[in-house]
Amino acid sequence: MASELIINVEPWETRVALLENGTVVEFHVEREAERGFVGNIYKGKVVRVLPGMQAAFVEIGLQRTAFLYVTDIYDHLPEFEMMLGRTDYDFEAEDEEHPLHYEAPPFRIEDLLHNGQEILVQVSKGPLGTKGARVTSHISLPGRYLVLMPTMNHVGVSRRIKDEKERKRLRDLIEAMRPQGLGFIARTASEGASAIDIQSEMEFLIKLWENIQKKAASIQVPGLVYEDLDITLRAVRDLFTGDVKRLVVDSETAYARIVEFVDAFCHDLRPMVEYYDYPKPIFEAFGIEMELSKCLGKKVWLKSGGYIVIESTEALTAIDVNTGKYVGRRHLEETILKTNLEAVKEIAYQLRLRNIGGIIIIDFIDMENPAHREEVFKALSKAVSKDKCKANILKMSEIGLIQMTRKRNRDSLSRIMSEPCFYCEGEGNLKSRRTIAYDIFRRVKSEAKWANCSEIEIHVHPRVGDLILNHEAHHLEYLEEMLNKTITIVSRPEMHVEQHDIIYKP
After folding, report:
1. pLDDT in tens, 481-493
2. Kind and range of the H or E element at 66?
3. Which of 71, 124, 257, 478 keeps 20 to 30 A from 106, CA to CA?
4. What's the CA gap between 414 and 430, in Å, rounded?
5. What residue spans define the domains of the chain?
6. How far is it, in rounded angstroms, from Cα 341 to Cα 320?
7. What fold, for 3-35+232-291?
8. Predicted confidence (pLDDT) at residue 35 exceeds the cutoff of 60
9. Rounded mean pLDDT of 226-232?
10. Residue 88 pLDDT more than 60?
């Protein structure tokens, strides 16, 4: 399947889109004002141990204390290692970056931690809504080909590598090279990698871990010990696989960084890296901007005329399937089955694109025929199997409900790009003020090059104007310097918060 990786870099945010046959299947965004924490390593302090929950709260320097569950604790004591029985874990069945999920342990958290204790932890799930980050002391350091697990004495191979000979080759290579006591997982990108590439990355990751340990020993608590790569290089590391025929980026600085990274870790992909240097914005040129404008809506139309409705709550996401305008040709049961099967593909696509995680309830149109219910269940299982985020699906009930879970370690697209509507007291959603501001910046940057003007007036709602002038002023100055034009923000209370007018003055 032909894939393309498109990266749009601005001073205020970086956006990454993965395209398959011209369709956006994954979208990631990282904003300067809202950098993520997943993958970061902190030296923290236990502030509260909760025996009733078998968990602890750890102060790591973020806005909220982090949550540490008992099975996410590592200790160097030999008896602790014996209790873990870590050689029995099936690494290959889990996610390659965060592979460790345990059954109920035979030990209690109050025997392992106490208030005031210092501990090295890594963020495995970022803060979501009102919840703090989830952390683990099972550190994992992902490279392009390998994941180093310094607390685990085990070798695993990504479950996405199907060829048994290749799996054995990688396992034997790693076993022969690794120092005793350090665990490694061969990532999907390692398929076909040479022994030299594997060894080079292994040495790099081991050196990185040594540096992390040295820094952790010298800094105060709480403190950041290691910060994961920014989204540009993470995209190269995690998404730029052999299936991607080209990577296109519109920033000269980012292009140079990507080329340097590729030359160091995956030099064979260097010819696929391209610098986009054209007047038309890169996301518009590839048709991505239009796709993104649709992905915040609740209703998604199907080609047949049916539609699905996606509703997110604090605890779960509900998806409802409807026949809509589709009336079929012959029998009602055939109409319902066709609509449900079409909805399956769209649901799998939307879950991946919007990064919807947690508990998901899908209400398919009722089907009386058990064979049809089984057909829809198998179709959904097959559709989500292509997703890199692990999903568990339960059998369809007699009334057409399917319950499933999808791994969640960062905010969904709707949480990032929208905020509760203050017009309707949270009953609906609006674009966030920062998203509106960045839409304006992009439009000004694109249009002002061709406008015969010396001054630009931007009319916006006061809430958006306040954000631009007080929190995004440095980006406004950047646009003024780049365009060599004066930009004035005019607040107009009568305007809707999502509305804006741009006036180019001579």
Report:
1. 999 999 999 999 9
2. strand 66-69
3. 124
4. 10
5. 3-35+232-291, 41-226, 296-413, 432-505
6. 13
7. Nucleotidyltransferase; domain 5 (3.30.420)
8. yes
9. 92
10. no
Average pLDDT over residues 286-315: 86
Residue type, 195: A
Distance CA 44, CA 496 (A): 44
The percent of the chain in helix, strand and coil, each rounded to the nearest 5, is 35, 25, 35
Domain 432-505 has CATH 3.40.1260.20: yes
- Whether the Cβ atoms of residue 187 and residue 159 lie closer than 8 Å to each other: no
Please state, in angstroms and rounded to a whole number, the distance separating the CA atoms of residues 271 and 257.
Answer: 15
Contacts of 497 (CB under 8 A, 6+ apart): 422, 423, 430, 433, 436, 461, 463, 464
Give the span between the Cα atoms of 196 and 275, in whole angstroms: 29
Residue 64 has pLDDT above 70, yes or no: yes
The burial of 107, by beta-carbon neighbours within 10 Å (0-12 exposed, 13-18 middle, 19 or more buried), is given as: middle
Instruction: Please check whether the two domains, 3-35+232-291 and 41-226, share a CATH topology.
Output: no
Q: Please tell me the pTM assigned to this model.
A: 0.78
248 membership: H or E segment, kind and range = strand 244-249
Instruction: Answer whether residue 458 shows pLDDT above 70.
Output: yes
Length in residues, the chain: 506
Q: What is the mean pLDDT of residues 179-197?
A: 91
Neighbours of 105 (CB within 10 A): 17
Give CA–CA dist 90/92, Å, rounded. 5
Distances (CA, A) of 4 to 18, 88, 180, 190, 247: 6, 39, 39, 20, 6
Q: Do 97 and 160 touch, CB atoms closer than 8 A?
A: no
Burial-class residue 168 by CB neighbours within 10 Å (0-12, 13-18, 19+): exposed
Q: Report how many helices (DSSP H) and strands (DSSP E) the chain contains, helices first.
A: 13, 26
- Please say whether the beta carbons of 288 and 24 come within 8 A: yes
Superfamily of domain covering 41-226: Nucleic acid-binding proteins (2.40.50.140)
Rg for the chain, CA atoms, rounded: 25
- Asked whether 428 and 443 are in contact (CB, 8 A), the reply is no
Distance of CA 25 to the CA centre of its chain: 12
**What does the DSSP 8-state code read for residue 33?**
G
